[in-house]
From TrEMBL, chain A:
The chain crosses the membrane at residues 33-54, 162-179. Keywords: Membrane, Transmembrane, Transmembrane helix. This is TIGR03943 family protein. It comes from the Bacteria. Residues 120-158 have a biased composition (Basic and acidic residues). Residues 232-325 form the DUF1980 domain. The keyword Signal does not apply. Residues 69-158 are annotated as: Disordered.
UniProtKB/TrEMBL annotation, chain B:
The chain crosses the membrane at residues 24-40, 60-85, 134-158, 164-184, 223-243, 249-269, 276-299, 319-339. This is Permease. It comes from Streptoalloteichus tenebrarius (strain ATCC 17920 / DSM 40477 / JCM 4838 / CBS 697.72 / NBRC 16177 / NCIMB 11028 / NRRL B-12390 / A12253. 1 / ISP 5477). Belongs to the UPF0718 family. Residues 1-20 are annotated as: Disordered. Residues 1-14 have a biased composition (Low complexity).
């Protein structure tokens, strides 16, 4: 990819980050705390691209072929790109094969070197390596320049920046949804993480506020049923918000995902919905619901993977919250 | 000396003819790609509608979005080093003795509060400014693992086990320093791709800020692509590896250590988040989970992709297995010493 295209892609990527930060969809992927970082990163990317473009334009206007530091610093001339890491099952070009052979020859040579003696020797060798290296470097640059300028345009352009298009396209075109029922079913049985969390933390739970149909996060329902022996949830009517999940055997769960950093480390918090089959029948998995009901006391045992049973009184569909994670 | 004569043959391929490259212009390809994507947007979205693909694409975007700010921070620091820190200053700060410098670099990791993506471009610039590779690599391994943010996160994730924080700190520091020392003995300069060490030579008249902007832009564009590749791999494995594998390992410490080490590599979690994931795997004893925390920041799929892109494939195929082995051993030893057994 040539320099001008790189700049366009970089600006697009920065724009994509700014877009998800602006419209709030970044909350599908990361924690709210990343917002300032995301904005700063988007601005930095757009700014770096803009600076490069402006410098290129100015350089072209003043008649310099290549902007100042770009020539030496830009993509490697006449040598393999970073993308020789098998980006996408490309076939080996003859040049690349030749290179691999040559480098294994070098390895064979270096392997047969006499091993350096103990301490001081090791250091000396290190120095020697450094020197070797420095000279190789200089030589290489000379070689490159000769090639680069001799052929007018001997640059080989790095291919790895093409991959930057993937998140751009994913964000602008697909906009992947927040993790849902598929992720819950994939994560395995139950609320082991929530159960573990409390085991060594403070055993004290603050009393629930008074009133009827108290809104409570599903994660707190789980920790309270598992760890709170005072029975603070007994006979209390609660209002839970989450999305509907159907297990393979058809049992309905109400779930929220919890993320620590990004969606890659998400873990589910679930309650088993009981007695609401008729009311739940019309809703597809991943529908966001507000469910009012009561927790069955002592139902979050380890034998059921710390999944409390929640007796459903009423169900009503709601809009997905801005931050889908708890 | 032979290295000098062989290097060009190892890296120089026949130049492509200018006529051929002119025909397919990347800017044109980009425009066509973008227009095609817009025209067939509905089909692309429909093709991704399978639940597993949806989950995978969410994880992919999440890893990219989470890591990009850290990579951006890394390239800004790397640009600063290239433009404003003369090689002589670094040489003055570091001990002459490479082995001692490796130790200093390991402790210097305490100062860069980022995850692994930030440290790769920084390590590259350090090498460029004349820091011995082994020293820069020790910094590369230490920075994401022993910084205060990560240690606090570990303390929060394991509230009843303060020893876990100490064990992680010692295990990770040992991994960085031991790998650095091993690299002093066995590392070879030619394994590191020449492009990684190419210094930006400003033309007379170019300001330091121009060098800074150009270095940062160049590092971001190149390393970013490999970060995306790593994110893609992590997303696929995240969806493909069943969670039940882990829970079935309860009670088998040795097997648990191996599986958790491999899991740390394939999941490619941010070093600031991995402690919470490790804490959640409560079916396992502490030792395998400690190994998970020591291996993760040192070597994982997105990091290997990033290193292969930055330092070259010849480097990555040697460095990744070496770090993996050292990290597993250091993790186990730190666990046995600090935690007092497998537990």
């Amino acid at each position: 990819m040539r320099r001008e295209t790189q700049n366009v892609v970089l600006a697009l990527l920065g724009g994509a980050l700014l877009k998800i930060a602006w419209n709030g969809t970044y909350l599908r992927y990361v924690k709210p705390g990343l917002f300032p970082w995301l904005v700063a990163t988007g601005v930095v990317m757009v700014a770096l691209a803009a600076v490069a473009i402006v410098r290129d334009v100015l350089a072209a206007r003043t008649g310099r072929a290549v902007p100042a530091p770009a020539c030496a610093g830009d993509h490697p001339h006449g040598q393999p790109e970073p993308s020789d890491v098998a980006v996408s099952g490309e076939t080996e070009t003859p040049a690349r094969l030749a290179r691999t052979e040559a480098s294994s020859a070098v390895e064979a040579r270096t392997a047969s070197d006499t091993p350096a003696p103990e301490d001081a020797g090791g250091r000396e060798r290190d120095h020697e390596q450094g020197r070797d290296h420095e000279q190789g470097h200089d030589h290489e640059q000379g070689h490159d320049h000769e090639q680069g300028h001799g052929h007018g345009h001997g640059h080989r352009e790095p291919r790895s920046p093409w991959l930057l298009l993937l998140p751009v396209l994913a964000i602008f075109l697909v906009a992947p949804p927040a993790l849902g029922s598929d992720a819950v079913n994939r994560a395995g049985a139950g609320n082991d993480e929530a159960a573990r969390q409390r085991s060594s933390g403070s055993p004290m739970f603050p009393p629930l506020p008074g009133g009827d149909a108290i809104p409570l996060p599903i994660g707190e329902v789980v920790t309270r049923t598992v760890w709170d022996d005072s029975g603070s949830l007994d006979n209390r009517t609660l209002r839970l918000t989450g999305f509907l999940v159907r297990r393979d055997d058809g049992r309905p769960l109400l779930a929220r995902m919890v993320i620590r950093c990004c969606a890659a480390d998400a873990s589910p918090r679930t309650v088993l919905l009981s007695g609401g089959d008729a009311q739940l029948a019309g809703y597809a998995p991943d529908t966001w619901l507000e469910v009012v009901g009561k927790v069955v006391p002592g139902s979050g045992r380890a034998s059921v993977d710390h999944t409390p049973t929640f007796t459903v009184e009423s169900v009503r569909p709601v809009a997905a919250p801005t931050d889908p994670y708890e | 000396m032979i290295g000098v004569t062989t290097t060009p043959t190892t890296t120089g391929g026949p130049p492509r003819s200018p006529a051929r490259r002119r025909r397919v212009d990347s800017l044109l390809v980009l425009c066509v790609l973008l227009i095609a994507a817009m025209v067939w947007q509905d089909r692309v979205v429909a093709a991704l509608d399978a639940p597993a693909l949806r989950t995978g694409s969410t994880v992919f975007v999440a890893v990219c979005v989470q890591a990009m700010p850290f990579l951006a921070l890394g390239v800004l620091i790397s640009g600063m080093i290239a433009a404003f820190v003369p090689a002589s200053a670094l040489r003055r700060v570091l001990p002459r003795n490479t082995a001692a410098a490796v130790g200093v670099a390991g402790m210097a990791g305490l100062a860069l509060p980022g995850c692994e993506c930030a440290s790769v471009p920084v390590a590259r610039r350090l090498m460029q400014q004349g820091v011995p590779p082994a020293v820069a690599l020790a910094f590369l391994l230490a920075a994401p693992a022993v910084n205060p943010v990560v240690l606090v996160a570990t303390a929060v994730a394991f509230p009843g086990e303060p020893a876990m924080v100490l064990a992680r700190f010692l295990g990770s520091l040992a991994t960085a320093v031991v790998t650095g020392w091993l690299w002093v003995r066995i590392g070879r300069a030619e394994w590191i791709a020449e492009r990684a060490l190419r210094r930006i030579v400003p033309r007379p008249g170019a300001s330091r800020w121009a060098v800074f902007a150009e270095t940062a832009r160049h590092d971001l564009v190149e390393a970013g692509g490999f970060l995306v590749l790593g994110g893609l791999t992590a997303a696929v494995l995240n969806v493909a590896v069943p969670a039940s594998w882990v829970t079935s390992l309860a009670g088998q410490v040795a097997l648990g250590v191996v599986v958790m080490a491999v899991l740390a590599v394939v999941l490619a979690l941010c070093s600031e988040a991995d402690a919470f994931v490790a804490a959640s795997l409560s079916a396992l004893p502490l030792l395998p989970r400690l190994v998970f925390l020591v291996v993760g920041p040192a070597v994982d799929v997105k990091l290997v992709a990033l290193q292969a892109g930055t330092f070259g494939r010849a480097f990555a195929v040697r460095f990744a297995p070496l770090t993996f082995l050292v990290a597993v051993v250091c993790g186990v030893v730190a666990g046995l010493l600090v935690l007092g057994g497998a537990r």
